[in-house]
Design goal:
The protein is α/β, with parallel strands linked by helices. The chain has 5 helices and 8 strands.
């Protein structure tokens, strides 16, 4: 097993969210590969208040330590109003240097596969010096979920997830050499 540590970041904190289902699915695929240590990182567990609105010294330190210990990321992001969730943007803003010189893949979902959220996330990641990989599994609320709440991915996504992880591992290894 590689010494790479990859965090699967769950990008929603709301009640009834499906990101834990998607994250567990990605992790189950990733764990079969044996090329890194994969772990779910749920931003909900960190209770980050809006940046600058409350003293969050303890939460921010814990969040930054978690992100700093990882070599790469898979962001599970859903599309809200053509973008990422406010909670994910807030979590990205709480850590600056901890993101730098690492790689990321994106798994998105929404009515158009979460494509617009993924594109917004790519711009933010660029500012944080995160190299995002090209392959992007995009899940549809219409074909990959039952009643919008039960995740039932189409088989075709398995190849996309593995191709994304192939790219993520190569970039994570390369970027680790400059940190």
């Amino acid at each position: 097993m590689s010494d790479l540590k990859i965090g699967i970041i769950l990008g929603s904190t709301r009640e009834g969210r499906v990101s834990p289902q998607v994250g567990e699915w990605v992790k189950s695929i990733a764990d079969k590969r044996g090329d890194a240590q994969y772990e779910i990182v749920d931003i909900k567990d960190y209770n980050l208040p809006l940046l600058g609105e409350a003293d969050a010294t303890e939460q921010a330190a814990r969040w930054n330590n978690t992100i700093a210990a990882l070599d790469g990321f898979v962001f599970v992001t859903q599309e809200y109003n053509h973008s990422i969730t406010g909670a994910l943007k807030n979590a990205l803003d709480y850590a600056r240097e901890a993101w730098n010189n690492k790689a990321a893949g994106i798994v998105s979902y929404g009515s158009v596969g979460g494509a617009r959220a993924a594109e917004h996330l790519r711009g933010i990641l660029g500012e944080l010096l995160v190299a995002d990989v090209r392959v992007h599994p995009a899940l549809s609320l219409f074909t990959d979920f039952v009643n919008g709440s039960e995740f039932k991915p189409q088989d075709l996504h398995l190849n996309n997830v593995n191709e994304m992880l192939d790219q993520l591992i190569r970039w994570s290894k390369a970027l680790k050499t400059i940190r």
